[in-house]
Design brief:
This is Cytochrome c. It is built from six helices and no strands. The chain is mostly helical. The structure holds heme C.
Protein backbone atom coordinates (compact mmCIF):
# COMPACT_ATOMS: atom_id res chain seq x y z
CA UNK A 1 0.00 0.00 0.00
CA UNK A 2 2.75 2.38 1.05
CA UNK A 3 4.85 1.37 -1.93
CA UNK A 4 1.99 1.92 -4.29
CA UNK A 5 1.48 5.42 -2.93
CA UNK A 6 5.14 6.15 -3.50
CA UNK A 7 5.06 4.88 -7.08
CA UNK A 8 1.98 6.95 -7.76
CA UNK A 9 3.71 10.02 -6.37
CA UNK A 10 6.83 9.51 -8.50
CA UNK A 11 4.69 9.13 -11.60
CA UNK A 12 2.88 12.35 -10.83
CA UNK A 13 6.12 14.24 -10.27
CA UNK A 14 7.57 13.02 -13.54
CA UNK A 15 4.40 14.02 -15.35
CA UNK A 16 4.67 17.51 -13.85
CA UNK A 17 8.34 17.80 -14.87
CA UNK A 18 7.55 16.52 -18.36
CA UNK A 19 4.86 19.13 -18.67
CA UNK A 20 7.12 22.00 -17.70
CA UNK A 21 9.87 20.80 -20.06
CA UNK A 22 7.34 20.73 -22.86
CA UNK A 23 6.25 24.27 -22.17
CA UNK A 24 9.87 25.31 -22.17
CA UNK A 25 10.61 23.66 -25.51
CA UNK A 26 7.58 25.02 -27.29
CA UNK A 27 7.70 28.71 -26.61
CA UNK A 28 8.48 30.32 -29.96
CA UNK A 29 9.26 34.04 -29.92
CA UNK A 30 8.69 34.50 -33.65
CA UNK A 31 4.91 35.14 -33.48
CA UNK A 32 5.51 37.87 -30.88
CA UNK A 33 8.03 39.87 -32.93
CA UNK A 34 6.95 42.98 -34.83
CA UNK A 35 7.48 42.74 -38.61
CA UNK A 36 10.33 45.20 -38.36
CA UNK A 37 12.09 43.25 -35.61
CA UNK A 38 11.56 39.99 -37.43
CA UNK A 39 13.18 41.49 -40.54
CA UNK A 40 16.13 42.88 -38.58
CA UNK A 41 16.65 39.56 -36.83
CA UNK A 42 16.46 37.57 -40.06
CA UNK A 43 18.99 39.94 -41.63
CA UNK A 44 21.32 39.53 -38.67
CA UNK A 45 20.89 35.73 -38.78
CA UNK A 46 21.78 35.56 -42.46
CA UNK A 47 24.92 37.60 -41.92
CA UNK A 48 25.85 35.43 -38.91
CA UNK A 49 25.30 32.32 -41.00
CA UNK A 50 27.57 33.50 -43.80
CA UNK A 51 30.22 34.67 -41.32
CA UNK A 52 30.14 31.22 -39.66
CA UNK A 53 30.67 29.52 -43.04
CA UNK A 54 33.65 31.69 -43.86
CA UNK A 55 35.09 31.24 -40.36
CA UNK A 56 34.86 27.49 -40.84
CA UNK A 57 37.01 27.42 -43.98
CA UNK A 58 39.43 30.03 -42.61
CA UNK A 59 39.82 28.08 -39.38
CA UNK A 60 40.58 24.77 -41.06
CA UNK A 61 43.12 26.43 -43.36
CA UNK A 62 44.83 28.44 -40.61
CA UNK A 63 43.81 31.90 -41.88
CA UNK A 64 43.77 33.38 -38.39
CA UNK A 65 43.27 36.98 -39.45
CA UNK A 66 40.15 36.15 -41.42
CA UNK A 67 38.76 34.18 -38.49
CA UNK A 68 39.40 37.19 -36.28
CA UNK A 69 37.72 39.69 -38.63
CA UNK A 70 34.60 37.58 -39.12
CA UNK A 71 34.27 36.63 -35.45
CA UNK A 72 34.60 40.30 -34.53
CA UNK A 73 31.89 41.11 -37.09
CA UNK A 74 29.53 38.63 -35.43
CA UNK A 75 30.28 40.10 -32.04
CA UNK A 76 29.61 43.65 -33.23
CA UNK A 77 26.32 42.74 -34.89
CA UNK A 78 24.80 42.14 -31.43
CA UNK A 79 21.22 43.09 -32.08
CA UNK A 80 20.76 44.81 -28.72
CA UNK A 81 23.62 47.15 -29.55
CA UNK A 82 22.53 47.87 -33.09
CA UNK A 83 20.79 51.07 -33.99
CA UNK A 84 17.42 49.93 -32.73
CA UNK A 85 14.97 52.71 -31.99
CA UNK A 86 13.69 53.08 -28.44
CA UNK A 87 10.38 51.62 -29.62
CA UNK A 88 12.15 48.61 -31.18
CA UNK A 89 13.92 47.96 -27.91
CA UNK A 90 10.65 48.05 -26.01
CA UNK A 91 9.03 45.76 -28.57
CA UNK A 92 11.94 43.34 -28.38
CA UNK A 93 11.96 43.22 -24.61
CA UNK A 94 8.26 42.51 -24.46
CA UNK A 95 8.54 39.80 -27.15
CA UNK A 96 11.44 37.73 -25.85
CA UNK A 97 11.94 36.06 -22.46
CA UNK A 98 15.05 36.49 -20.32
CA UNK A 99 16.40 33.11 -21.45
CA UNK A 100 16.51 34.34 -25.03
CA UNK A 101 18.43 37.49 -24.11
CA UNK A 102 20.87 35.39 -22.10
CA UNK A 103 21.46 32.98 -25.00
CA UNK A 104 22.03 35.91 -27.35
CA UNK A 105 24.54 37.46 -24.94
CA UNK A 106 26.34 34.14 -24.44
CA UNK A 107 26.52 33.66 -28.19
CA UNK A 108 28.09 37.06 -28.77
CA UNK A 109 30.49 36.51 -25.89
CA UNK A 110 31.64 33.27 -27.57
CA UNK A 111 32.22 35.24 -30.78
CA UNK A 112 34.45 37.67 -28.89
CA UNK A 113 36.37 34.69 -27.45
CA UNK A 114 36.78 33.28 -30.93
CA UNK A 115 38.24 36.57 -32.17
CA UNK A 116 40.68 36.44 -29.25
CA UNK A 117 41.67 32.82 -30.02
CA UNK A 118 42.27 33.84 -33.65
CA UNK A 119 44.48 36.69 -32.53
CA UNK A 120 46.46 34.14 -30.49
CA UNK A 121 46.63 31.83 -33.53
CA UNK A 122 45.24 29.09 -31.26
CA UNK A 123 43.47 26.67 -33.61
CA UNK A 124 42.41 24.21 -30.88
CA UNK A 125 40.66 26.99 -28.94
CA UNK A 126 39.02 28.29 -32.14
CA UNK A 127 37.70 24.82 -32.81
CA UNK A 128 36.21 24.52 -29.32
CA UNK A 129 34.56 27.93 -29.46
CA UNK A 130 33.25 27.36 -32.97
CA UNK A 131 31.54 24.18 -31.76
CA UNK A 132 30.11 25.96 -28.75
CA UNK A 133 28.70 28.64 -31.05
CA UNK A 134 27.06 25.97 -33.19
CA UNK A 135 25.56 24.59 -29.98
CA UNK A 136 24.15 28.07 -29.29
CA UNK A 137 22.40 28.21 -32.69
CA UNK A 138 20.73 24.88 -32.00
CA UNK A 139 19.82 25.75 -28.40
CA UNK A 140 18.15 29.02 -29.36
CA UNK A 141 16.39 27.71 -32.47
CA UNK A 142 15.07 24.60 -30.74
CA UNK A 143 13.79 26.58 -27.77
CA UNK A 144 12.54 29.77 -29.38
CA UNK A 145 12.10 29.18 -33.11
CA UNK A 146 10.59 25.69 -33.00
CA UNK A 147 7.60 26.90 -35.03
CA UNK A 148 9.80 27.65 -38.05
CA UNK A 149 12.48 25.04 -37.46
CA UNK A 150 10.21 22.17 -36.54
CA UNK A 151 12.95 19.64 -37.21
CA UNK A 152 14.53 20.92 -33.99
CA UNK A 153 11.38 20.87 -31.89
CA UNK A 154 12.31 17.55 -30.24
CA UNK A 155 15.79 18.66 -29.16
C1 LIG B 1 19.46 33.84 -29.13
C2 LIG B 1 18.77 33.19 -30.20
C3 LIG B 1 19.45 32.81 -31.48
C4 LIG B 1 20.73 32.34 -31.67
C5 LIG B 1 21.84 32.15 -30.65
C6 LIG B 1 20.84 32.05 -33.07
N1 LIG B 1 19.67 32.33 -33.72
FE1 LIG B 1 19.28 32.08 -35.71
N2 LIG B 1 17.37 32.73 -35.43
C7 LIG B 1 16.84 33.18 -34.24
C8 LIG B 1 15.46 33.61 -34.46
C9 LIG B 1 14.52 34.19 -33.40
C10 LIG B 1 15.19 33.40 -35.83
C11 LIG B 1 13.86 33.63 -36.56
C12 LIG B 1 13.61 35.09 -36.88
C13 LIG B 1 12.26 35.27 -37.53
O1 LIG B 1 11.88 34.46 -38.39
O2 LIG B 1 11.57 36.22 -37.17
C14 LIG B 1 16.42 32.86 -36.40
C15 LIG B 1 16.57 32.54 -37.74
C16 LIG B 1 17.73 32.11 -38.33
C17 LIG B 1 17.89 31.85 -39.76
C18 LIG B 1 16.84 32.08 -40.83
C19 LIG B 1 16.96 33.51 -41.35
C20 LIG B 1 15.94 33.91 -42.38
O3 LIG B 1 16.34 34.34 -43.46
O4 LIG B 1 14.74 33.79 -42.10
C21 LIG B 1 19.17 31.41 -39.94
C22 LIG B 1 19.84 31.02 -41.26
C23 LIG B 1 19.81 31.38 -38.64
N3 LIG B 1 18.91 31.81 -37.68
C24 LIG B 1 21.13 31.02 -38.43
C25 LIG B 1 21.74 30.99 -37.18
C26 LIG B 1 23.09 30.52 -36.94
C27 LIG B 1 24.02 29.96 -38.01
C28 LIG B 1 23.32 30.67 -35.61
C29 LIG B 1 24.56 30.33 -34.82
C30 LIG B 1 25.85 30.54 -35.38
C31 LIG B 1 22.12 31.24 -35.01
N4 LIG B 1 21.19 31.43 -35.99
C32 LIG B 1 21.99 31.55 -33.66
C33 LIG B 1 17.46 33.19 -33.01
C34 LIG B 1 18.78 32.78 -32.78
Amino acid sequence: MKLRQKVGYVGLTLAAVGLSLNTLAADPVTPKLTDRLSQLLQQEMRSIQSAMASIHVSMVTGEHERVETKAQQIHDSFIMKQALTEQDKKDLMSAVPEGFVKLDKDFHRLAAGLAEAAKDKDTQKQYELYNEMTGSCIACHSRYVSDRFDGLAEQ
